[in-house]
Amino acid sequence: MNNIEQYVESKNLNNLKLKYPNCLGFNKYMNYSRYINGRIKLCKDIGLTNGIKRSILDISSGFGYFPLVCRFMGHRVKLTDIPNNLFDDVTDLFELEKKYMDIPTTGKIIIPFNIKFDIISAFSVVPMSYFNNDSWLLFLNICFNQINKNGFILLSPNRGGINKLNLFLDTRIGKSLFIKETCSNKNTTIVRKNES
Q1: Global pTM?
Q2: Spatial distance between the Cα atoms of 138 and 116, rounded to a whole number of angstroms
Q3: pLDDT at residue number 1
């Protein structure tokens, strides 16, 4: 068991199961070893283990495993999500700073932090399954307005969202504005601004 897993184990997440006995999907998130080890592998894949400290905003954080892993690696992290009592309790246990943010299917988000980040990440964001090309363009442009030079967006939309993202990035406008890189996990895409 690594230090992050020991930290999570010390937080007694099972106590929350008593507080939320009918919560669908709770057991899935309780398999924290799977999530933590997957996020550690992703961090290695995208260069977050090279000693350079970065500022990261995680959108739609859920239990917050990705920002938690990043924080353990020394990165500065902030989270956003919709109000959810269970997710709020977990991220509070992990002592992660979070603000509320909605993600409409139009892609028009309002990021509640007035700072720039090196990386903005979004994993399994349900509304992204409904994004069209205009939604993706708006969402990516809003994110890049809050990303430092040479920063990037890390996306792993759930269900049909990854296909819609890739279709948009392969359009003429998508290719002219953005550069797409695929991670070793084929469902995760890095998007950079095309500076050429």
Answers
A1: 0.93
A2: 18
A3: 55
